Amino acid sequence: MVACKTVCLRRLGGTRAGELRAGRFLANARVTAAKIVQGWSALTAAACVGRHILAIEDRSEVRFPTTAQRRRGLGPVKKGNAYGVLVHAMIAVEAETGACLGLVGGDVWTRAGVNAVPHRKRPLQQRESVHWLDTAEQAKQVLSGAAMVTAVADREADSYPMWAWAPETNFHLLIRARKDRCLAGGGMLFAAVQGWPVAGRRSIELPAREPAQARRTAVVQLRYGEVEIRRPQDERDPRLPASLRLRLIEVKEVAPPKGVEALHWRLLTTHEIADAEQAWQIVAWYQRRWIIEQLFRVMKSQGLQLEDSQLGSAERLVKLAAIATKAACVELQLTQERDGAQQLAASVVFTEPEIETLAALSPTLEGSTDRQRNLHPPRSLAWAAWPIARLGGWNCYYKPPGPITFRRGMQQFYAIHHGRMLEMRSKREVRIP
Fold first, then answer.
1. How many domains does the chain have?
2. Where does residue 128 rank: exposed (0-12), middle (13-18), buried (19+ CB within 10 A)?
3. Buried b (16+ CB within 10 A) or exposed e, 259-298
C-alpha cells in the first residue's frame, strides 16, 4: 500500500493472479483485524525506549459508499446517516521533537446497529468509549520501556473511568474537557477557572483544517490551577472513587479574526504544574495531537483513498482498514524524517532484510558531488529514506522529496528487494553434488 499509495486490490496485486491472492488473504478466516492491529506495534516499542512519549489516540469514521440494496454488512457511522467502519488508533510521538515513532494499538470495527439502551445505562465494557481506556492499557505494555508516557486525546476521551483507572506512575493523561463537571467542594469546573489570574499570553500556530479553516496564528491567554472533580451521579460503579484531583489549563484566544470561531481549550491533566512555563509546555504537547489527524488524512482523502474501496463485505473492509492504518503511518514517518531532523532508526519502518537491501543499494545511487551522496548516519531512517527518494526520481537538488516521490521510490525498492530475496533463496537451495 505504501508503494502503490492505494488500497485497490487490482493495483496492489499487479496482475489478475496477484489480485486474487490479495482477495484470498482478506477472505481467510485466520486473518483477523485483531491480529493485524496486534502487529501495528511490532517496531514501535524498541523506538520508544528511554524517551518521553506522547501516546496520541483518536477515532476516525471511514464512510464507504452504499445503497439500500448493497449495505455490505456495514453498520452506521456519521450520526447514523452513512455506513462504514471505525478506526481507533494510538500513535507514539516523541514529546520533544514531534517525531512519529509508530503505531501503539487500537481497534477497527463496524457497528452491529444502533444500540437502544442509553449510553449511561450500559456497563462500561458495553460502551464504545471503553476503547479509549483499552487502548491506554495497550500503551502501558507497548511503551513499558519509555521514560514517561503522556496519553493525549480530544474531548471524546474525557470520561470519569478514564481519569480514575488509566493514570499510573509515569503514565499521565492530557485530555481536552468535553463537558462541565461538578467539583467536590461545590461549584462547576468551567466557572472555577474564571477566578484564576491570567498567567501569560503567547502566539500559537493553528494548522489548516479543510475545507473552511486556513492555517493561522492565534494570540491566546492562559490560566491554570488545580481542581477536584466529583464522580458523576450516573457513574454507579462502586470501584470508582468519589472524587479525583486534576490540573486544569484554559487556553483562550484574544481578539480572533472576524468571522472565525475563537480558540478555546480547557485541558485536564494528571501532570503537576509548578509554574506558567510548565503549563505552556503541556499546551505544546496537546498541539501535537494534530499529528494523528494527519495520519487519518493520509489513510483517507489525501493518500490511500480507503473510502473508495469496493470490497463486498464488512469483514474484509475492516481488515483492509486495519492494514491501511499501518501503511498510512509508514508514509507519514518517511515524509516526516526525510531531512533527518528526528534522528530515528531505520528499524522504526524497515525490517532487517530490507535494511540490508538498502545498504547494498544506496552506494549505487550516489553521484560525484556531496549533495548527491547519502551523508545521513548509517541505519538511520533518513539514511533509508535517501535511496527511496532517489529511486522515486529525486535529483538531490531543488525542493525536498514529497509523498509522490516516496510512493514511486517504494514501488521501485520493493521490486528490487523482492528480486534480491529470490536470488538469495535460490542460492541457498543450490546443492553441489
1. 2
2. middle
3. eeeebebbbbbbbebeeeeebbebbebbbbbebbebbbeb
Residues 241 and 375 in one domain: no
Q: Does 220 fall in a domain? A: yes
Angstrom distance (rounded) from CA 88 to CA 61: 9
List pLDDT tens digits, range 81-129. Answer: 899 999 999 999 999 999 899 999 999 999 987 777 777 777 788 888 8
195-207 pLDDT, tens digit each = 999 999 999 998 8
Q: How far apart, in Å, are the Cα atoms of 351 and each of 174, 348, 422? A: 33, 8, 16
Shortest CA distance to 108 belongs to which of 135, 126, 81? 135
> Is residue 238 one of the residues assigned to a domain?
yes
Of the residues 291, 323, 354, the one at which a domain ends:
291
229 domain-assigned: yes
- Band (pLDDT 50/70/90 cuts) for residue 67 is confident
Query: 243 and 346: one domain?
Result: no
286 with 350, same domain?
Answer: no
* Pair 346, 281 in one domain: no
Strands 216-230 and 100-109: what pairing? unpaired
How far is residue 82's CA from residue 32's CA, in Å, rounded to a whole number? Answer: 24
- Structure confidence at residue 232 (pLDDT): 92
Structural domain containing residue 69 = 43-291
Which one-letter amino acid corresponds to residue 256? P
The C-alpha cell 480507503 sits at 306
- Give the span between the Cα atoms of 87 and 321, in whole angstroms: 7
Cβ proximity of 415 and 379 under 8 Å: no
Residues 6 or more apart whose Cβ sits within 8 Å of residue 51: 94, 95, 96, 101, 146, 147
Among candidate residues 400, 398, 390, the one with its CA nearest the CA of residue 366: 390
Indicate whether 100 belongs to any domain. Answer: yes
Q: Is the preceding peptide bond at 211 cis, omega within 30 degrees of 0?
A: yes
Domain boundary among 291, 306, 323: 291
Give the pairing type, strands 82-94 and 100-109. Answer: antiparallel
Same-domain pairing of 68 and 200: yes
CATH code (residue 216): 3.90.350.10
Please list, residue by residue across 379-413, b when 16 or more beta carbons sit within 10 angstroms of its beta carbon and e when fewer do.
ebbbbbbbbbbbbbebebeeeebebebbbbbbbbb
